Amino acid sequence: MADEERPWRRSNFNYNEAQKSVSNQMDGGVISIRINGEEKQVPAGLNILNLVRHLDLDPARVAVEMNRRLVRKPDWEATQVEDGASLEIVTFVGGG
Fold first, then answer.
1. pLDDT tens, 42-83?
2. Helices (DSSP H) in the chain: which residue ranges?
């Protein structure tokens, strides 16, 4: 294997700078997720509550399933939406 394929072997490779670069890409980047069967790009680092707000939905009127598991509302803030996640978001509609 050539040194070009192993950057850590080069004398000028700076692991800390490489790690910082990866972190910066994650902090301000976007992720790809599937919502109700449609591919969407959303900001990285969102939890379920922030995703619902980002989508301009009323948190009081929706239920969320992520990766085939229902996510209870008390758990929304602690549940991060990760790249590649598959979500189903159901909006409750009242009527009479």
1. 999 999 999 999 999 999 999 999 999 999 999 999 999 999
2. 15-27, 48-54
Give the whole-angstrom CA distance, residue 96 versus residue 87: 29
On whether the CB atoms of residues 64 and 76 are closer than 8 A, the answer is yes
Please give the CATH superfamily to which domain 3-91 belongs: Beta-grasp domain (3.10.20.30)
Q: Where are the domains of the chain?
A: 3-91
Give the C-alpha separation, 63 to 89, whole Å: 6
Structure tokens at 57: 């939905």
CA distance to 16, 45, 60, per residue, from 78 (Å): 29, 11, 17
The torsion defined by the Cα of 7, 13, 17 and 21, in degrees rounded to 10, comes to -30
With contact defined as beta carbons under 8 Å apart, do 85 and 57 qualify? no
pLDDT tens sequence across 19-45: 554 444 455 699 999 999 999 999 999
